Amino acid sequence: MHRSASRLTRVLACAAVPVILTVAGCSSDSGKETAAKDEKKSGSSASSKPGEKSKPELEKAAFAALPDPCKALQGGTIDTLVPEAKDKNGTATKSNDLASRASCSWNGLDEDGLKGSQYRWLSLSFFRTDSHASLGNANKRAEEQYGKQVEAAKASEGAQNLKAEPVEGLGDQGTSIVYSVKKDVDFANTTIVARTQNVVVTLDYNGAAYEGAGAPDQAKLLQDAITAAKEAVGSVAGANKPAEQPQSPQPQ
Questions:
Q1: Which of 12, 93, 180, 188 is 20 to 30 Å from 158 at the Cα level?
Q2: Taking CA 162 as the corner, what is the angle to CA 229 and CA 108, rounded to the nearest 5 degrees?
């Protein structure tokens, strides 16, 4: 009896081995398939997230630099707008940064004996914008700045008989604002605001007569201001021209 029980135990043990191996084999294959499916699912979800939109690429700013504001107008232009200027080289703003904003001004008193004196003041400023991820592209930001400059000129304190009109052929956008201001004498004021790509140009020009001299001709002040503004707009492109490469000497 003891011998029969021992034999039966050995038979059951041998019979159980294949069953265990079979179960183990199935578990291993199942695990591999599950892992492969999880990896594929994980890779798919990582490569594309539903509802996520790619941000549009920002447009590169057309102009990367500003001209020197005190050199943006030719000497002859300064002579025409500001006769007897105290300093023909102009007075630059101390905070000038040719990468973003800069300005320069001139003033002069042209005395003509008993005929009185003519005073002129001229200011030229540049404002440049860059493309920014949260603020928008450079040209759009410049358009907004252009609008602000026009509105600021319209809101000048004490302005009388104000008139604003578009100016054709002045960069991408151009507006003239003319008005008079009563101080110790009558001042005739002209502001020209222009935009060329991502740069806004603002030119302020005013004049007054003293000691019995005739009042400044507002129409002439406006025309001179527009001519100077066009020159200033052109200087922006000039400041961004690539440097000329030195030519190699030709063999003789």
A1: 93
A2: 50
Please calculate the CA angle 206-207-210 and round it to the nearest 5 degrees. Answer: 155
As a whole number, the mean pLDDT across the chain is 83
CB atoms within 10 A of CB 80: 14
Pick the range with the lowest mean pLDDT from 50-59, 64-73, 147-156. 50-59
The Cβ of residue 70 has, within 10 Å, a number of other Cβ atoms equal to 21
Selection from 197, 203, 214 nearest residue 177 by Cα? 203
- pLDDT higher than threshold 80 for residue 49: no
* Confidence at residue 6, expressed as pLDDT on a 0 to 100 scale: 47
Q: Give the whole-angstrom CA distance, residue 213 versus residue 236.
A: 37
User: Which pTM value belongs to this model?
Assistant: 0.75
The predicted-structure confidence for 130-140, as pLDDT tens digits, reads as follows 998 888 999 99
